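Hello,

Our lab assistant flagged a job as stuck in the queue for most of the afternoon. It eventually completed. Since we weren't sure the result was trustworthy after the delay, we are filing this so someone can double-check. Below is the sequence as submitted and the structure that was eventually returned. Let us know if re-running is recommended.
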Amino acid sequence: MKTIYHSADSRGHANHGWLNSYHSFSFANWQNPEKVHFGALRVLNDDTVSEGMGFGTHPHKDMEIISIPLEGDLEHKDSMGTTSVIRKGEIQVMSAGTGVYHSEYNKNKDEAVKFLQIWVFPREKGVEPRYNQLNIKENEKPNDFQQILSPNADDEGVWIHQDAWFYLAKFEKNFSKEYHLKKQGNGVYVFVLKGSAKIGEQSLNTKDALGIWETDSFTLEATEDAEVLLMEVPMELPKYLIN
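-- returned structure --
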């Protein structure tokens, strides 16, 4: 088993006033050659957007874009005609594919909105753009791995054009459980949302992360009550990015 530890304070940081963002991987003006991506996981941004502010209309192409609200309400509009609001307890996915324009705004006038913005390279270019959002709160599984994303449209959670699986783990203190990877050649990027946890000898506190690969399984233990996001992705980049 190979691992790489990323502490919370090793992330890039950009404060634009209306947007306070922490970057797990190189993004915009923050570039770190040692933290460009983790396999097919290209972006993990921990964003806080001020009241009534947001990202104006802008384009994306050939990327699977996932948003997970942590606090507040996020309004989404796109060139496919979608207008929606996503809230804590929900997940949003947009396949940019051949090209799409969208905007994201803080729907609240009296509080900031906090959300994770995640980009995953799709397995192929030029897919048809699509949008979906889903309530994941109603299927919450305390002391278990709750699947919130997969490659399969008929499976639990949202789906994307990649052999990736995302899980939420809400563990009570001292609870532990073994995670089994779904596909050979995949790795898992473990990101602690709240509390603290441990994998092997590596302790993880809030917003710390551990990348794990070349293994079939590992055990996640909560050393305090913890909420953890596990992102299993292929470690090999799609061929169109290599050729």
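-- support follow-up --
The delay was a queue issue, not a problem with the job. The result is valid. Residues 61 and 99 are 4 Å apart (CA to CA). The chain has one domain: 2-242.
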